[in-house]
Amino acid sequence: MEQVLIKLTVNGREEDVRVSPHKTLLEVLRDDLSLTGAKNGCEDGSCGTCTVLLDGAAVRSCLLLAMEAQGHEIVTIEGLSDGQNMSPLQEIFVNQGAVQCGFCSPGMILTAKALLDSASSPTETEIREAISGNLCRCTGYTKIVEAVMAASGQPVPVRTHPYEGDVSERAAS
Amino acid sequence: MVTFYRRLPKFDYLAPQSIEEALALLSRYQGSAKVIAGGSDVVPKLKRRAMKGIDYIVDLKGISGLDYISYDGAGLKLGPLATVRAVERSDVVLETFPMLAQAAESMASPQVRNRGTVVGNICNAVPSADMAPSLLTLDAKVSVVSEKGSRTVAIQDFFTGPTKTVLSADEIVTGIEIPNPPANSRGKYIKLTPRRAMDLAVVGVAVMVTPENGICKDLRIALGAVSPTPIRVAQAESILKGNKFSDELIDQVAEAAAEGCRPISDHRASAEYRRDMVRVLTRRAIRELLSDEAASAQGFGKGA
């Protein structure tokens, strides 16, 4: 159970890290590489906020040993921006109101990226299926789905609130 | 008070390059080594301390060529590293074994399915294992090896209890063989859950029916989450086999399936509800399969 020196490729950079074999990729990213974008939520594979990309596929970094990630390309949310400016996908999430408290956002955005990289214009059903393992307790998901549609250049459906209009009209109807 | 662990216990990580090497490790470390493929069941179990005394994790992913999904005309072969996601998207699975794809895509979330494997799902052997009912109706066979030799276990004999299988600590599953379903058969898996994703089955029902001129040539029914292991209900199957389809007989089959299971009550559902749903879903599955094609012309398969 000695520590071992491993190489991880994170956001295009090769990192030498000394890890204990029982450490998850999430722990190593956050504690050893100071990449705190991937969030530590349930640690049980249920919430999706620790999602990272492994060779382009969305995976749960809390269920993955750091040892298993050797030899694979890891992308975290930090890998999307250039450090100064947000990536277009992140920008659209902000502009569409898909970010509220922000805790699910890194996982949501990386999950969305994996989807958009494999399907250029996903349907609403495909988007909802892709993010079905990412919990968000703020947005109700609608704005997130709209952000992914907008990011793929699709028109965002206009939703009329049932109670739009003034109070007297509402009372009358 | 229950202590809630969220960190993994300490262990050493071993990545053998061949099956032989993996088997040697398992026999050397006896019960203190645990095999992982995707790790999506083992890691949370270790964190919960539901699995104790594990000093070594033996990762099969260092062995090349184990992620195959191959079809040779007579049947399908799934390797121990074939992920749930790969199975759910495989053209041959979608075309020839659609109920396997249905079961696969009903599991967990895309992120978990990208890592988790079909073989891992059955080795974990929870009563609600989603791949199990479909594999049971397809009469799958599990290939097992150890240093002492190899054996083939029918999927019906594979599960021995909740999270228990016939596997001993020094054995590895090297694949699942699934023979072609009977000609003109149709099958489906219905999973009852409050949520479509990230939920375990409250009840899982897989049905495969082979109709021929209004007669039931073959019927196979398997149930998940309603007995200590996933099960086939032979008694229910025999009611229709060789007989003309009728609403009365279908009702009898559904009733027999409900009587053939031994559900428990837990936070997901009461035993009574589970039994009721076995009856409803078995009937629904048979009717929907019949209404898919010619049988609908004879007036069966309407409604649920």
Could you outline the blueprint of secondary structure elements for this entry?
The complex is a heterodimer of chains A (173) and B (304).
Chain A lengths: L3 E7 L2 E7 L5 H8 L18 E4 L2 E4 L12 E3 L12 H8 L9 H14 L5 H7 L11 H10 L15 H6 L1
Parallel strand pairs in A: 1-5
Antiparallel strand pairs in A: 1-2, 3-4, 3-5
Helix pairs in contact in A: 2-5
Chain B lengths: L11 E3 L4 H11 L3 E4 L5 H6 L8 E4 L9 E3 L3 E4 L5 H6 L1 H6 L1 H8 L4 H6 L2 H7 L6 H7 L3 E6 L2 E6 H4 E3 L2 E2 L6 E8 L6 E7 L10 E10 L2 E10 L6 E2 L1 H7 L6 H13 L11 H21 L13
Parallel strand pairs in B: 1-3, 2-3
Antiparallel strand pairs in B: 4-5, 5-10, 6-7, 6-10, 8-9, 11-12, 12-13, 13-14
Quaternary state reads heterodimer
Based on the coordinates given, report the CATH architecture of the largest domain in chain A.
Answer: Roll
The radius of gyration of chain B is 20 Å
The helix/strand order of chain A is EEHEEEHHHHH
- SS-derived structural category of chain A: alpha+beta
What profile does the largest beta sheet of chain B have?
5 strands, antiparallel
The CATH homology group name of the largest domain in chain A: Beta-grasp domain
CATH class division of the largest domain in chain B: Alpha Beta
- Within the largest sheet of chain A, what's the order of strands? 2-1-5-3-4
Residue fraction in strands of chain B = 15-25%
The CATH first-level class of the largest domain in chain A comes to Alpha Beta
Number of domains of chain A: 2
List unreliable stretches of 5+ residues of chain B.
294-304
Main sheet: strand order of chain B: 4-5-10-6-7
Global mean pLDDT of chain A:
93
Q: How many strand elements of chain B?
A: 14
Separation of the first and last Cα atoms of chain B: 46 Å
Helix/strand-derived category of chain B reads alpha+beta
Helicity range of chain A: 25-40%
